[in-house]
Amino acid sequence: MTATAHAPHKPSWDCLACGRPWPCDPAREALAADMDFVRLACFMWDALEEAVRDLPPTPATELFQRFLTWIL
Ligand SMILES: [Zn+2]
């Protein structure tokens, strides 16, 4: 992953740059530009697993939309 200001602050998983829930739009753009689809899917799956451990209980559908649905 290239250095980008729009990175997740842990354990809140809000963006360091804009404070929105990560991945924010600029982060999504940077990630999608940086990786092919398979790599991006693996990366976001790993991020989701990590976020599940950090975040308070959150409905799975919400997490899927936030971390994975946007890449499709
Ligand atoms: Zn951001």
Topology record:
Elements (H helix, E strand, L loop, with lengths): L7 E2 L4 E2 L9 H10 L2 H18 L5 H8 L5
Antiparallel strand pairs: 1-2
This protein binds zinc ion (ZN).
3D structure, described in words:
It comes from Couchioplanes caeruleus subsp. caeruleus. This is Flavin reductase. By secondary structure, this protein is mainly alpha-helical. It contains three helices and two strands; from the N terminus they run ββααα. It has a two-stranded antiparallel sheet with strand order 1-2.
Number of helices: 3
Give helix and strand order, one letter per element, not per position: EEHHH
Uncertain stretches of 5 or more adjacent residues: none
Taking the alpha carbons of the first and last residues, their distance comes to: 19 Å
Largest sheet strand order: 1-2
- Estimate the mean pLDDT confidence: 94
Q: Any idea what the radius of gyration is?
A: 11 Å
Ligand catalogue: zinc ion
Overall domain count? 1
Briefly note the structural class of the backbone: mainly alpha
Instruction: Kindly estimate the percentage of residues that lie in beta strands according to DSSP.
Output: 5-15%
- Strand tally is 2
> What summary fits the major beta sheet?
2 strands, antiparallel
Shape estimate: globular
Residue share in helix: 40-55%
Organism: Couchioplanes caeruleus subsp. caeruleus
Protein name: Flavin reductase
